Amino acid sequence: MAASALTSTPPENQPHRAEVQKLLVHPTSRRAGLGRALMLQAEAAAREAGRTLLTLDTRAEDAASGLYRSLGWHEVGCVPGYALDGSGTPRDTLFF
């Protein structure tokens, strides 16, 4: 099982960009190419919509950052304690 989402209505001064809000692959289905396939589809949908810049964020310790890098995404920074995990613990977040 997997899911992804793109923002659909950008601010007036940013019609060229979109944000990948979530990309989730169930732990038992990981390492089977589903995340890569979802990202490639999200990128294609963005191109079709005229979006030339995509952004996303992910927890710093998650393996997803390797996927994004392998697809040519560029890490632009890390914010310590940016988001809380399921137990309420602050976690560092990478931005791409």
Description:
This protein has 96 residues and is α+β, with helices and mostly antiparallel strands. It has two domains: 1-8 and 16-54, no CATH class; 56-96, no CATH class. The chain has two helices and six strands; from the N terminus they run E-E-H-E-E-H-E-E. Strand 2, helix 1 and strand 3 (53-55) form a beta-alpha-beta unit.
Through-space gap between termini: 24 Å
Radius of gyration, rounded?
14 Å
Task: Give the total of domains.
Answer: 2
The number of strands is: 6
Distinct helical segment count: 2
How helical, in percent, are the residues?
10-25%
Average pLDDT, all residues: 91
Overall geometry comes to globular
Sheet with most strands:
3 strands, mixed
Beta-strand content estimate: 35-45%
Q: Stretches where pLDDT falls below 50 for ≥5 residues?
A: none
The helix/strand series, from N terminus to C terminus, equals EEHEEHEE
Largest beta sheet: strand ordering: 1-2-3
Structural class: alpha+beta
